[in-house]
Description:
The complex is a heterodimer of chains A (543) and B (311).
Chain A: H1 2-22, E1 33-34, E2 39-44, H2 59-68, E3 73-75, E4 81-83, E5 86-91, E6 95-100, H3 114-125, H4 143-147, E7 158-162, E8 165-169, H5 177-180, H6 191-196, E9 214-220, E10 224-229, E11 243-249, H7 253-261, E12 267-270, H8 272-280, E13 286-298, H9 309-318, H10 321-329, E14 335-336, H11 352-355, H12 365-379, E15 386-391, H13 395-412, E16 415-420, H14 423-432, E17 437-442, H15 450-453, H16 470-481, H17 485-501, E18 505-517, E19 521-522, E20 539-540
Parallel strand pairs in A: 2-11, 15-16, 15-17
Antiparallel strand pairs in A: 1-2, 3-4, 5-6, 6-8, 7-8, 9-10, 10-11, 12-18, 13-17, 13-18, 14-18, 19-20
Helix pairs in contact in A: 9-12, 16-17
Chain B: H1 2-29, H2 43-53, H3 59-72, H4 87-122, H5 127-141, H6 144-162, H7 176-205, H8 208-215, H9 220-232, H10 234-249, H11 252-257, H12 263-272, H13 276-304
Amino acid sequence: MARKAASATRWLKLLGLLxxxxxxxxxxxxxxxDFDARIIRMVLPQExxxxxxxxxxxxxxxxxxxxxMEALTxxxxxxxxxxxxxxxxxxxxDGATFWLREDARWSDGSPVLARDFVFSWRNAVDPKTASEYxxxxxxxxxxxxxxxxxxxxxxxxxxxxxxxxxxVRFSRAIAYFDKLVAFATFYPLKEDFYRAxxxxxxxxxxDMLFNGPFVIERWDxxxxxxxxxxxxxxxxxxxxxxxxxxxxxxADTNAALNLFKDGRIILAGLxxxxxxxxxxxxxxxERFNDGSAWYIEFNHREGRLTQNWxxxxxxxxxxxxxxxxxxxxxxxxxxxxLSLYPSYLRxxxxxxxxxxxxxxxxxxxxxARSHLAAAREDLGLAEAPELxxxxxxxxxxxxxxxxxxxxxxxxxxxxxxxxxxxxxxxxAKMTSGDFDLVAAGWGPDYxxxxxxxxxxxxxxxxxxxxxxxxxxxxxxxxxxxSVDAAVRVDAFGCIQRILLEDHAIIPTYExxxxxxxxxxxxxxxxxxxxxxxxxxxxxLEQP
Amino acid sequence: xxxxxxxxxxxxxxxxxxxxxxxxxxxHAVPGDxxxxxxxxxxxxxxxxxxxxxLDRPVFPDQYLIFLGNMAKGDFGLSFTQxxxxxxDIIGDAFPVSAQLGVxxxxxxxxxxVLLGAFTALKRNRWPDVTVMLAVILGISVxxxxxxxxxxxxxxxxxxxxxxxFLPVAGWGDISQMIMPALVLGLSTLAFxxxxxxxxxxxxLTADYIRTARAKGVSxxxxxxxxALRNASLPVITVLGPAIAAITTGGFVVELVxxxxxxxxxxxxxxxxxxxxxxxxxxxxYGSFLVFMVxxxxxxxxxxxxxxxxx
Lengths: 543, 311
């Protein structure tokens, strides 16, 4: 018995030793912030598919790229356009000139020159690259023809007459070109380095060259990504942080909140479920509008019931955006859906929606019913029709779809069938037109109302309901081609009026996001276009 | 023995071919494709993308035959979602992670299951038995995402109460980060093994040789450790093979919650993104793994238990 007890103690000791070894404080150093070393740590919702700026399309890639690359121009903390690699620039009706700064450097120490932009932009429109964002260069001379394979790549209207002067020729005026070039597709690429990678550029940290405030030092796929301050960056004195690390990659918002609570990460996004948890902790909840507009898109294809204006009007008149944002979605920060344009967009002098105020939406069930009756007469329907509402599979999408289903049943006696699909399948059905209504949203690519305004032009491939209206098309052309701010605002007003009067869409809401952030981290920038969140200029203050 | 092994191997290969073909057909029957994205692309760009991935050819027979040919060579091609990376490399990176986690989970499940099962059999119908069996029913019926979330929350609260990091909440890299996910991952297997072990133990305890041992005056502890436990654990060993395969491949939720870069996550994300090549690679890999685990267990049977003749 005594021998047994002794052996038991031995085992316990061994176990204790083992646990002690496990509990070695190797990991306890990995807190959300390190004040002395100037490090912050965050979670990434997913692995970036790859980091070649000419092919990047998703938010995670553009967010990372926004910290390690710099475009000709960039937006500061207040959302103002400021010089990036370009010291100054000039936008004309027929083209633009950018003068590059002397001290802009690549992370290998070599200078960033105008030819790096020429190569990058040619590469993006080259059909061999097959960049999904090639369309964003449209308006530069020959861009469209090149991406269709109808003109040689070097005929693109961009050249480097001097090492630090970039000349751009337009095929149509691009009033917002200085804002457009802040986008990821316009980042420079160094030709010899890019070509030496033989198609693997952006696949791994060592397959990239950086010209932004940070460089990627480590990238373990699916597990971890670490950025370190770029010693060659021209504005390095303004960069406070030495490192930004992403030790966790998960899309689970609950896990992110747990990591935040445990002091591992500085920022966690919240949804309606995790918000309760955050409120219990008495944390300060921050919010901002992420720039996306959400709406119900109708199928305007031949033979669809939703081609009927009376039916669309009946559906629109029974909908109430305030009920949706306050009672259904339930998280703070969402704004009512009044227009296709989100409220932060700027017009000629003030906010766009102040210059072209959209009408206050009307909810009138009696009027809606009379329009439904008219629709049934138009269409010769004996009974109320059944409609298919295509929607995504997120919790918010589910809640919204069920709300609409109940609403239209009560208000109009309509049967709405919900077709819930995961992302790719929903896209496929949208593209093939297999729906009556679809819950859709759009986020801005650049900070000009046109990124929303041209969505329902008859030629736009993203117009998946195939809405076609000659008057609207004409207004889109005006907004595209004019450099006169007042003329463009009028054109945007025309687009808004037609969409709302014709009920081409029902605006539902403007999305707000809520999150919690570590109190010591200052200078985080949230913005509507990538990179968001932007921590490149953040600093730490001991509480 | 040799002929039997060969026969089983051939059957296994046919099974894998069948799995591959069925997955290939199902995958292409789903609406949508890996190249469609938020922003619609022009015809020319789409054609180039299709050509790059070989989607410009007819699905059957061209794409199917090319796939089979490459599969025979063990090459699954380039991933669509993790562009520039080979499916083989993704599996090569992610599988060891899942395997490490799985081995830890199965160790925990096997040891815990055998001991708990034996213990409850000894205390049959008394309160420890009832309590443990209730917990077992919970363990089997509650889905793993609940346990994963609860386990993580428990760590947050423990760390907060202690004032230092007892165990990390998530992440991957050192062994401290494996413990909680392994516990959660092994939980349902542990519950299942407990039940199996309990019934097996009950059977053994009434066997003649136990009565003989008792009559000979062997101590209760001796009977338990030397005679009962050893014999009763045989059925547990039997189910361990498939359990290992299931555990090392079925950790999607646990991998998501604990931010672990494993293969389960890669697989589910591939399906959501319709990443054709990664779906095929992971399915065939998982399928083969499962098939060969079962074959190995069957062959081991013959070695462990001489009554089973493999011919």
